[in-house]
Amino acid sequence: MTSKPTVWQRLVTCLSSLKSYLKVLCLVVTVFVLLQICSFQITKHSLSLPPSLFTYLKHQPEQASDNKTAYLVEKLRESVTFLPLKDYRFSNKPLEGHTWFMSSLLDNQTKGEAQYQEFPSDSSKGKLLCLKGIDKHDGSWNYYALALPEAIPTNAVLQKGLTFVSYNQYDYYNLWHGLSTMVPFVSWSLRNRCERPQKWVLYHWGELRFEMGHWLSEILRATYNQEPEFTRFIDQDNPVCFEKAVVMRHDQAGMSRERRMEAFDHIRRKARSYCNITSSKPRIGMTLLLRTGARAFRNETVVINVFRRECKRVNGCELNVSYSDNLTFCQQVELMKKTDVLVSPHGAQLTNLFLMDRNSSVMEFFPKGWLKLAGVGQRVFQWGANWSGMRHEGTWHDPVGETCEFLDTDRRCMSVYKNAMIGHNETYFGEWARRVLDKVNNRMKQNITEHNHSYDSLDECRC
Ligand SMILES: *[C@@H]1O[C@H](CO)[C@@H](O)[C@H](O)[C@H]1NC(C)=O
Ligand SMILES: *[C@@H]1O[C@H](CO)[C@@H](O)[C@H](O)[C@H]1NC(C)=O
Ligand SMILES: *[C@@H]1O[C@H](CO)[C@@H](O)[C@H](O)[C@H]1NC(C)=O
Ligand SMILES: *[C@@H]1O[C@H](CO)[C@@H](O)[C@H](O)[C@H]1NC(C)=O
Ligand SMILES: *[C@@H]1O[C@H](CO)[C@@H](O)[C@H](O)[C@H]1NC(C)=O
Ligand SMILES: *[C@@H]1O[C@H](CO)[C@@H](O)[C@H](O)[C@H]1NC(C)=O
Ligand SMILES: *[C@@H]1O[C@H](CO)[C@@H](O)[C@H](O)[C@H]1NC(C)=O
Ligand SMILES: *[C@@H]1O[C@H](CO)[C@@H](O)[C@H](O)[C@H]1NC(C)=O
Ligand SMILES: *[C@@H]1O[C@H](CO)[C@@H](O)[C@H](O)[C@H]1NC(C)=O
Ligand SMILES: *[C@@H]1O[C@H](CO)[C@@H](O)[C@H](O)[C@H]1NC(C)=O
Ligand SMILES: *[C@@H]1O[C@H](CO)[C@@H](O)[C@H](O)[C@H]1NC(C)=O
C-alpha cells in the first residue's frame, strides 16, 4: 500500500526534472545558435559567402557609416579562413586525388596535362592563394587560404608576380625525385607563353624547405635563365598572398608521353645552351658512369675492360669512364651529349639519362635481392627513359651477393641488399653490350645525316 505514493512522487520528480532537462536543452540550443551566428560572422569560409550573409551584414546596426563597400571589404578581410596545409585525415592516402596537401582544393585535370592549380583563376573564382606559417617539421602548422585580391587579410604581404608552389613527397636533393617535381612546372611554362616564376615556395609534406640540391637548382637556373629564389616567410603570423600562383602536387601524374618528352626536350636544350656545349660527339659514345660506395661495381677493372673491348669492335665507338661524384653539372651535361649508350648501376646519377640525344640507350645494373624486394620503385629509370624518349635496354640483376640471415623474400633483407656492391658476369655483359651497340650502330648507319643535324635543328628554344 505504501508503494503508490512513492510511484506518484517519482512521476512528479521525473516530470519536474524533465522540465529542467527541456530548459537546459533550450539553453544549449540557444547558445549553439548564437555561437553559430558569431562564428559565421568571424570565420565562416570566405571561400563561399552565402548571399544570406551579405544581407545579414548589410543590415548590421553598427554600419552607421554610409560607405557600405568599405565595411563589406573589411568584413571580407576578417573572414579569410586559414586551414592546415597538411590534412592528417588523409595520411593513409597522402597522394590520392586532392591529396593531404591543401586537401580542400581540387586540381585542374585537363587531359594529357599535369594536374595543377592556378590562382587567381576561374576555378578559384578570382581569389588569390595566401600562405602562412614557418614550420619546418610539421606541415599541419603551416596554413593556406583563399582571399579576394581586394580583401586580403590586413596583416598580409602581397607577393608580386608569378610564384611556383611545389609539393614534393620525397625530397629536393634526390635528382630523380627533384626533377620529377619540376617537370610539370616546366610543362606549364611551355603552355603559358614561357612565363617564369619570380619566386618558388617549396614544401615537403607541407613542411617548408628553403633549398634544393645543387644539380636540381642548376637545372632550374638553366631552364629559366635565372637563379631560383625560394620564399622565406617573415614570421608565424603574417600571411603572404600571391598576385599569381601555380601549385603542383602530383609530379608528372596525368601528363601524356608527348607532354613529358616536350618538357624533357626543353630542359635538355636549355641545359646544353646554359653550359655552352659546343664540343662534337664521337660517332658512337659509350659511357660508363660509375658510383663510389653504395652500388658500385665490386671489380671495376673487369667491368671497364668488358665494355672497352666491345666498344673497340665497333667503328667510331669511344668509351668514357667517369665517376658521377666528380663531375660538375656542366660536365655531366657535356658527357651526356656525347653519350649514345649509358652504362650505369641503379642510382640517382642515372637521372642524367634524359640529357642524352633522343633515342639513346640505357643499360642498368642492380645488386642481388632488388628484383624480389625493391618493389616498383626500381623501375624509375625505365619510366624515365620512356618519358624522355630514350631506350631502356634492360637490367642486370646480380644473382650473387651479400648473404641475409632471413629468407631471400623477407623484407628485412632489403636493408642488407639496398646499398650492396654489384658483381659481374663477363660473358653476359659482353653479349649484352654487343647487342646494344649493334642496334645503335645500325641506327647510325641508317640516317647519319639526320642524326648529325637532329639537335642543331632543334636547338632553337621556344623560350
Ligand atoms: C568607400 O570605401 C572604398 C574602400 O575603402 C573606397 O574605395 C571608396 O572610395 C569609398 N567610397 C566613398 C564614397 O567614400
Ligand atoms: C583548366 O584549364 C583549362 C586550360 O587552361 C581551362 O580552360 C579550364 O577552364 C580549367 N578548368 C578549371 C576547372 O579551372
Ligand atoms: C656560357 O657563355 C656565356 C657567354 O660567353 C658566359 O657568360 C657564361 O658564363 C657561360 N656559361 C658557363 C656555364 O660557362
Ligand atoms: C678484379 O678481377 C681481376 C680478374 O679476375 C683480378 O685480377 C683483380 O684482382 C680483381 N680486383 C679486385 C679489386 O678484386
Ligand atoms: C674521381 O673520383 C674517383 C673516386 O672517387 C677518384 O679516384 C678519382 O681520382 C677522381 N678523378 C678526378 C679526375 O677527380
Ligand atoms: C669523359 O667525359 C668527361 C666529361 O665530358 C671529360 O672531362 C673526360 O675527359 C672524358 N674522358 C675521356 C676518356 O674521354
Ligand atoms: C627516334 O626514333 C623514332 C622511332 O624509331 C624516330 O621516329 C625518331 O625520328 C627518332 N628521333 C631522333 C631524334 O632521332
Ligand atoms: C612507354 O610509355 C608508353 C606510354 O605511357 C607506353 O604505352 C609504352 O608501353 C611504354 N614503353 C615502354 C617500353 O615502357
Ligand atoms: C653468365 O652469363 C652467361 C650468359 O648469359 C650464363 O650462361 C652464365 O650462366 C652466367 N654465369 C653465372 C655465373 O651466372
Ligand atoms: C631515321 O631513323 C628513324 C629510326 O631508325 C626512322 O624512323 C626514320 O625514318 C629515319 N629517317 C631517314 C631519313 O632515314
Ligand atoms: C656530320 O658532322 C660532321 C662534323 O660536323 C661532319 O664532318 C660530317 O661530314 C657530317 N656527316 C654527314 C653525313 O653530314
TrEMBL record:
Swiss-Prot/TrEMBL keywords: Glycoprotein, Glycosyltransferase, Membrane, Transferase, Transmembrane, Transmembrane helix
Keyword Methyltransferase: no
Stretches that traverse the bilayer: 21-42
A family per Pfam: Glyco_transf_61
Subcellular location(s) per record: Golgi apparatus membrane
Entry GO CC: Golgi membrane
Superkingdom per UniProt: Eukaryota
Gene Ontology molecular-function annotations: pentosyltransferase activity
First and last residue of the signal peptide: none
Membrane topology: Single-pass type II membrane protein
Domain Glycosyltransferase 61 catalytic positions: 212-363
ATP-binding in keyword set: no
Name by which UniProt lists this protein: Glycosyltransferase 61 catalytic domain-containing protein
